[in-house]
Automatic annotation (TrEMBL):
Its EC number is 3.1.27.3. It comes from the Bacteria. One of its GO terms (molecular function) is RNA binding. This is Guanyl-specific ribonuclease Sa. Pfam families: Ribonuclease. The gene is rnaSA. The lineage of its organism: Bacteria, Pseudomonadati, Pseudomonadota, Betaproteobacteria, Burkholderiales. Keywords: Hydrolase, Nuclease. SUPFAM superfamilies: Microbial ribonucleases.
Length: 128
């Protein structure tokens, strides 16, 4: 009797499974967008990544300071996990909007780094 009752619901399970799969894909991609290869970033970003791995010296006082992730676009982490670095924009006399934010407890060996060209409105994970 139970099998007879479940038979009409079989189609709903397929729909539910597809819907959950689409949701999981959207959540996995989330506000971070697609990954971006380091070679696809502006040359200034590649130079900043090199400075991060060297431990500096950084041209801006705010470089290497804690990034609080107030926008909550990056994966949740304890305070102090993320650090921000300025990616200079040619022609600007101020810091501009471009940043690299890296997560990890050892700044010269980050677990993951993210690039934003719009001052934290969106991020793309930097992939090798």
């Amino acid at each position: 009797m139970l099998r007879t009752w479940l038979r009409p619901l079989r189609g709903w399970w397929v729909v539910l499974g597809l819907w959950l799969g689409v949701c999981a894909l959207a959540l996995a991609r989330g506000p971070l967008g697609d990954g971006v290869a380091l070679t696809e970033l502006p040359p200034e970003a590649r130079q900043v990544m090199q400075l991060i791995r060297q431990g500096g010296p950084f041209p801006y006082e705010k470089d290497g300071t804690v990034f609080a992730n107030r926008e909550r676009l990056l994966p949740p982490a304890k305070r102090g996990y993320y650090r921000e670095y300025t990616v200079p924009t040619p022609g600007l006399k101020h810091r501009g909007a471009r940043r690299i934010v890296c997560g990890g407890w050892t700044p010269t060996v980050p677990d993951a780094c993210y690039y934003t060209a719009d001052h934290y409105a969106s991020f793309r994970r930097i992939v090798p």
